[in-house]
Write a structure and sequence with these properties.
Its main location: membrane. It is globular, with a radius of gyration of 23 Å. It contains 13 helices and no strands. Helix 3 crosses helix 11 and helix 5 (114-124) runs antiparallel to helix 11. The chain has helices at 3-8, 13-34, 46-78, 89-112, 114-124, 141-144, 151-156, 160-174, 195-201, 219-224, 247-262, 269-277, 280-314.
Length: 315
């Protein structure tokens, strides 16, 4: 496939890169499982690897279907573009940087808005970190609203095919930060997202939660106060483990919990909204707070009834 065909059909980019991915996986597997040069949580365990590839397949198939709808939407907005931007080496670099900036905010929103976290949690739910972890993606990203974050690039005047291409290129490059085989990249740690930075991002250690959202450039985290250096050994996973290797359970568990909480009794409309769109911990707290309030009222009512009975007995 030549480059022009790849731009015309950007959805196949990750398939084109697949041979490189599998070579890296084999090398990492050999280092860890054969040479014992990597931690135990970097090893390849068959149930999890199968789950990771299952999630990737579901994500890829969904992208093909929803991509057609999103492409039509992008083309509609492209008709209202502000500028006609011709693609060349300079504008490609501008697009890559602009897209990476948009990616930072998409990624940050995916951790701070529960509706989006419900899709993104599949990627973070593994308690291991190796190249196959990069394949843990969710088919629910389109529903969560991922595509909205790239829309400004189309409105400015970048061709939608190029926008989708650089989005997928960004995601493809992020494959290489999902490893424990590389400790540090020296001076590059100041500028680009590295395995060390991304290990922090996957940690559930308190100081690592909601840090290092970078796609390619770590400068966004340094600029917006979300950077954290890898110091303490990373404990991978999420604070509410899913404990399943079933791709469907991994994909939908948080959606199930979120909607179950949103329709809980005794919640006000405002609280239901916050269950869906507050940061994950705050959203869950809405139900807990309301349940505590109801419990307090019931306890006060019981105490009042008990007091009334005591008064009646005295009389």
């Amino acid at each position: 496939m030549d480059f022009n065909s790849l731009i015309a059909h950007p959805e196949v980019l990750l398939l084109v890169l697949a041979p490189i991915f599998f070579v890296c996986i084999l090398l990492e597997w050999y280092m860890g499982d054969r040479q014992n040069r990597l931690p135990l949580n970097a090893r390849y365990r068959l149930p999890e690897v199968l789950c990771n590839f299952g999630l990737a397949a579901m994500h890829q198939l969904t992208d093909i279907v929803t991509g057609l709808l999103i492409a039509k939407l992008y083309l509609m907005f492209f008709g209202w573009r502000l500028f006609d931007i011709e693609m060349n080496a300079a504008t490609f670099i501008v697009l890559m940087v602009a897209q990476d900036f948009c990616y930072y905010w998409f990624h940050r929103a995916s951790h701070r808005i529960r509706w989006m976290w419900a899709a993104h949690v599949a990627h973070h739910s593994s308690e291991n970190m190796n190249f196959s972890t990069a394949f843990r993606q969710s088919l629910m990203y389109p529903m969560a609203g991922m595509w909205i974050f790239w829309l400004p690039l189309v409105i400015v005047g970048f061709d939608p095919n190029w926008v989708v291409f650089v989005v997928l290129l960004n995601l493809g490059l992020q494959f290489f930060v999902h490893t424990q085989a590389v400790k540090s990249l020296g001076i590059l740690e100041w500028v680009i997202n590295t395995p060390s930075h991304h290990r922090v991002h996957h940690g559930r250690n308190p100081q690592y939660i909601d840090k290092n959202y970078a796609g390619i450039l770590i400068i966004w985290d340094r600029m917006f106060g979300t950077y954290e250096k890898e110091v303490e050994t990373v404990e991978y996973g999420i604070t509410k483990p899913i404990n399943s290797f079933n791709p469907l359970v991994v994909t939908f568990s948080e959606w199930r919990d979120m909607f179950k909480e949103a329709i809980s009794a005794n919640l006000s409309p405002k609280q239901r909204f916050r269950v869906l769109f507050d940061p994950p911990a705050s959203a869950t707290a809405q139900v807990g707070e309301q349940n505590s309030t109801v419990q307090d009222v019931e306890e006060k009512h019981e105490k009042h009834e008990k007091h009334e009975k005591q008064v009646a007995e005295i009389k």
